[in-house]
Design goal:
By secondary structure, the protein is α/β, with parallel strands linked by helices. Helix content is 36%, strand content 22%. The chain is built from 5 helices and 7 strands; from the N terminus they run βββαβαβαβαβα. The strands form 2 sheets. Strands 4-3-5-6-7 form a 5-stranded parallel beta sheet, sandwiched between helices. It has a two-stranded antiparallel sheet with strand order 1-2.
């Protein structure tokens, strides 16, 4: 059985059984995202550290990854680039969440999409839905 949800713009999306892996270092934001996505029907796995992330990806098999990146530097984007380069995870859309004023640069480096913090919940949800539709 597929769960369809109607969006205000009339677009139908399938959120039930879609898995979202969230790596967010700010525990308050992590909790908020977890609550919102769970309420939307997503299966959510949350991490506050990148330790063991590839084990989580392998075991959880997410449909999409939300990734907190502090800075679009070589060091800051290393995990994103590694996820997109790995055979097991290169097909998974990565949405980067960041407070950096030039976060759009990350989209050119490795991310499928970027959401600047602070973000509007509706915008985050529509970005996730769009990436799931196009992936």
């Amino acid at each position: 059985m597929k769960f369809y949800q109607q969006r205000p713009n009339g677009q139908r999306i399938r959120s039930m059984n879609k898995k979202v892996l969230v790596l967010e270092k700010d525990r308050d934001i992590l909790e908020l995202i977890n609550i919102v996505l769970t309420d939307e029907g997503y299966i959510v796995n949350v991490l506050s550290s990148e330790l063991g992330i590839f084990d989580h990806i392998k075991n959880f098999q997410p449909d999409i990854i939300l990734l907190d990146i502090i800075s679009p530097t070589e060091e800051g984007t290393a995990l994103c680039k590694t996820i997109k380069a790995a055979e097991d995870s290169s097909h998974i859309p990565v949405i980067v969440l960041s407070t950096h004023p030039k976060v759009e640069v990350v989209k050119e480096i490795c991310a499928d999409e970027v959401v600047a913090k602070p973000f509007d919940i509706s915008f985050l949800l529509s970005t996730i839905e769009q990436q799931l539709i196009t992936s």
